[in-house]
Amino acid sequence: RKPKKFPPGPAWLPILGSALEVSKLRKQTGYLYRATAELARRYGPVVGLKVGKDRQVVLYGYEAIRDMLSREEFDGRPQGPFYETRTWGKRRGVLLTDEEFWQDQRRFVLRHLKEFGFGRRTMGDLVEEESGQLVHAFRKRVMSSKNSGVVMSMHDAFGVYVLNTLWSMMAGVRYSHSDSELKKLQGLLTELFANIDMVGCLFSQFPMLRFLAPELSGYKQFIYIHQRVWEFLKAELDKHKATLRPEEPRDFMDAYLTMLSSDQKKPSFSESQLLAICMDMFMAGSETTTKSLGFCFLYLLLYPEVQRRAQAEIDAVVGRDRLPSLNDRPKMPYMEAIVLESVRMFMGRTFSIPHRALKDTELQGYYIPKDTMVICNFNGTLMDKKFWGDPDIFRPDRFIDEKGSVVIPDQYTPFGFGKHRCMGETLAKSNVFLFTASLLQNFNFSIPPGSPPPTTEAIDGVTPSPKPFKALVTLRAVE
Ligand code: HEM
To answer: Which keywords, in A-to-Z order, does the entry hold (predicted)?
Structure first.
């Protein structure tokens, strides 16, 4: 039964809760974020739902989101089969854990990743190295075509390069762009992310389906893909164990392994926890940035004037004799605004990672019982018409004030805030900035002749993707 003063929302039916109503709206609107936006229109910015066994509260609108994310009693992460199965029966990692376990692990990850460059100058070198490789690969393809132009698939052009910037620090590895095993794995992850949601999936809301309909409920695919990622990471871990020299840690994996055999080791530290952290970083670190870059280039095709202005800025600040670097960033507000706008377009179509109430509490005047899942629909902040005016238009200028400086309003929430705030914001923004600036310095991107403009409709899922699209890539003339 609905608890008293629980946030308003559709009726709760036995067993199903409000699942049918949500699913009907999702079918009508095409996306879960639009379905819950419609519910917010009907019931207000705090909507109460029950989907199978899960009590959920979806927040839409800045006030409610800010209130929830800044209060410690909402710092839990959900529990249940979905959040445990991914790490073999126990919640592990940093992405979906909470309380003391998560605090210890988050602190360790941040502190030790920094030793290998994370958030520091050396991280800039890694991103610069990778953007150089990206430009080189594009140039090779363009030059191999007789008329110096090539039609390329863009939505998935960045995955390996993005992962490399993080994996150099995590495991001291850079993968080749043609590494077929890694590409297969990234493809599987993209597929998985399109089939589940931030709020779980059928088998997490109706756990019996794991046994009654393992295929239909997505359980089988979920296990298969996680197993493949796990094996991939385990092979790297085994290599590290065989060559570890504790006095000279080469990367994060070494630092963690060294900690495992030290006397400061806390009970939350274990080898499977190390693998779970790697899995979290693998998933959180590459899918998000890659898809932001996908949206970035989609909109650059649709808004050629934005491309031209970015190129004019790159030419003025960097010129053509060297690649852009992160040192140029403070002098390139328009490029910086393109980064912000691309991430807005990506996260404005989805949710934050769900939180969980750690105790009975209240939010915006409503009663929220302990263990309720609380989730932010970022569409309500990042695409709010009242605030942004024209949220569907790709307009980097919205982040630039009359003096030409970058301004980021409070409503801009794609990385969340509070204690669970994204750990990879700096890396993600550096990647989007430098990959885009380096490519625009060297190439023009346009809609292939004879093709319709790419659609801005996305593929729904945990993180939305642009639908597959191609660009005509040509070398920029040297002036
Ligand atoms: C455009 C790219 C990215 C976006 C939009 C993004 C967004 C987010 C959001 C909204 C959260 C949830 C905050 C909350 O629960 O309140 C989050 C958490 C997280 N992100 Fe990112 N992220 C991005 C890139 C990355 C990268 C590159 C990494 C890896 C270095 C990363 C690692 C994480 C981790 C580990 C968490 C969990 C933090 C915690 O619960 O303590 N993210 N991210």
So the answer is: Heme, Iron, Metal-binding, Monooxygenase, Oxidoreductase, Signal
